[in-house]
Amino acid sequence: MIDYFVFTMQVILAFMGVYQLIFTFFGYYKRKRSVHYPAQKSFAVLIAAHNEEKVVGALIENLKKMDYPKELYDVFVICDNCTDRTADIARELGVNACVRNNPHLRGKGYALEWMLKELWKMPRSYDGVVVLDADNLVSLDFLQHMNNDLCSGKQVIQAYLDTKNPHDSWITAAYGVTYWYCNRLWQLPRTNLGLANYLGGTGMVFESNLLKEMGWGATSLVEDLEFTVRCVQRGINPVMNYDAKVYDEKPLTFKASARQRLRWMQGHFAVARRYFFPLMWQGLKEMNLSKIDTAIYTINVYNVMFGFIFSAILYADKLLPGEPHFASLYDYLPSLLVMTLTAIIYVQFPIALMLEKVKSWRIYLSLITYPIFLASWWPITVYAFFTQNNKTWSHTQHTRVIRMEEIQGK
Fold it and tell me: Distance between CA atoms of 154 and 299, rounded to whole angstroms?
């Protein structure tokens, strides 16, 4: 009986892999954006910050230089349980420092929920709310692109997520490759097919009226995925603006990266547990592909975990003395087909880099160590499964200041 179960799981995992592989081919082309509106939408730019005195100043300076009328946006730094000079730096640079002290409810989701309630009390109202992390930098035309989308009727928008320090270590290079790949071959295909895009935690823009109506309500360790699902449930597909760029600082070391990714996977399990079945059932009843696709995305974390477990079972079975106990799906497929699919999967990453016009030879060279980064997701995900009820938010430390001039000069 168990051998049938193992084989069935292989078929399901293979189906999920082929499903995502098919999507990637719709990311090979990118439509030109031609809609332009005069600057008219006002924005509240929220910066989530916890002890970010080293980096928050560079972002504030960056935001003050944006190519958008200064009277149409205000910057608010959410100084969440800070014990350093984050609030002082915000005030010195002439923006709003909003201090929150609640050691029992920690994390960006809770901080945003608190800040939005404070924002709605203020005398000025805004058309849109921008959410950034303190270690970010943004393209100077960021708000103009978001103005265009809001004027076009978009309600939830995700900017293009880029990496501001891909050359710092093999880990940051791996993050860079991952984000370029996801932008091009995960997000863009869904844009081209009219499906829901996924929010990425920063570089997010929301129509204010929608936020007031829905409330934030996303306080898990992956508040971005949680809010994505809540939008899709309501029939609102988040969209991606490929031209508005956010540069995010990535952890330098494997240890810091593993800690960050563990938090992501713990939160991902929680969201999958809560939302997968209701969203999938809703999508099937309505024959709504966006809801079905988003539901499938929520359980991607299980695909990673079971892929690792069943691969380990099959490899161990082949290494043990005697005849194998379990049939491998690969034994029933033509060798040429298996080799072709394997090659396509691995070649996607350099293809994504070329499509994104990445020119750094160091990034292409990092593809040698990239499989180690990919493989490390397996034990992290398995550990996350057994610790998914741990909702302790962990802070990523930032060690140096990078300014927009340095990024543009590379």
Answer: 27
